[in-house]
Amino acid sequence: MEQNSYRFTYIGGYSNVYAFTTSQLVDYEVRFAPSDYLFEHVSELGIATFEMIVVMTGTAEHTKTPADSTIAPTIAAIFTHFFDTHEKVIVYVCDTSDNRQRARACKFTAWFYRGLLNSNLPLAKVDRQMIADDGEQILLSMFIHLQHPNRLSAIDAFMSMGSDEK
Amino acid sequence: MTMETQAKPMTGKEKLRRLIDTKKQAQQEARDRYTNDAEYRAVFEKLREQMQQEQHGAK
């Protein structure tokens, strides 16, 4: 575990669930849900894809909690623990349930650079925007190991997803 | 004679919708589990105990 991060537990299961509690006793779950459907059109590349989802389990949605600088390195430590092979690709969807998703995307990017870059994990982060079926703009990030055997093809598949649709 | 139907590949928008729905479903599921699943809740109770012990130990 990285320095200055909270202790976490791997619960496991199909969705690869992790748990941690903050010093303010706020409980979090981080899960990595298998999402191989994302790259089914290039299944020959064998890209093992997971959607990362972070949930405050013990509180209602949008509950305001005190700022806590240890959460970012903890999520980064969990990410590093899960990202144990070069073949995994992780996708993160910025929360769209209110109008603050761009602020969250900035926060998420900040923890990525603060937390993950200290972990010595050679990763690339690729960001893009997509328009959902209801017209909403969605921000997506993909993380891929720099030594992934199909790195460039996977990035291309991610960036071109939906480009052939009007 | 049997006819086999091939699954239609998902469009980009369908994949995006599934990502969004998976996230919403996971958020709801985690909160429900926290309320209703004693084993799951016990994991957090243990983490809280350890946290409190560490906080006391640090004083």
The overall pLDDT average of chain A reads 85
User: What portion of residues of chain B is helical?
Assistant: over 70%
Radius of gyration of chain B: 22 Å
Quantity of strands of chain B, as a count: 0
What is the 3D form of chain A?
globular
Strand order of the largest sheet of chain A: 1-2-3-4-5-7-6
The interface involving the most residues is between: A-B, 44 and 30 residues
> What helical percentage do the residues of chain A reach?
10-25%
Order of helices and strands of chain A: EEEEHEHEEH
Structural class of chain A: alpha+beta
Number of domains of chain B: 1
What is the C-alpha radius of gyration of chain A, as a whole number of Å? 16 Å
Number of domains of chain A: 1
Largest sheet composition of chain A: 7 strands, mixed
Whole-number mean pLDDT of chain B: 88
How are the elements arranged and paired?
The complex is a heterodimer of chains A (166) and B (59).
Chain A: E1 8-12, E2 17-21, E3 27-34, E4 48-56, H1 71-82, E5 88-93, H2 101-115, E6 123-131, E7 137-145, H3 151-160
Parallel strand pairs in A: 4-5
Antiparallel strand pairs in A: 1-2, 2-3, 3-4, 5-7, 6-7
Helix pairs in contact in A: 1-2
Chain B: H1 12-36, H2 38-58
Describe what this molecule looks like in 3D.
The complex is a heterodimer of chains A (166) and B (59). Chain A is an alpha+beta fold. In chain A, 22% of the residues lie in helices and 31% in strands. Chain A has one domain (8-160): Aminopeptidase. In chain A, strands 1-2-3-4-5-7-6 form a 7-stranded mixed beta sheet, sandwiched between helices. The radius of gyration of chain A is 16 Å and the shape is globular. With 59 residues, chain B is an all-alpha fold. Chain B has one domain (12-58). Chain B starts with 11 loop residues before the first helix and ends with a helix. The mean pLDDT of chain B is 88. Classes of the chains: A alpha+beta (166), B mainly alpha (59). Chain A binds chain B through residues 6-9, 11, 15, 19-23, 25, 27, 29, 31, 33, 35, 37-38, 40-41, 51, 53, 55, 57-58, 60-61, 91, 93, 95-97, 130-133, 138, 140, 161-165, and chain B through 9-13, 15-20, 22-24, 26-27, 30-31, 33-34, 40, 43-44, 46-48, 50-51, 54-55. Chain A: InterPro entries: DUF6169 (IPR046167). Chain A: It holds the Pfam family DUF6169.
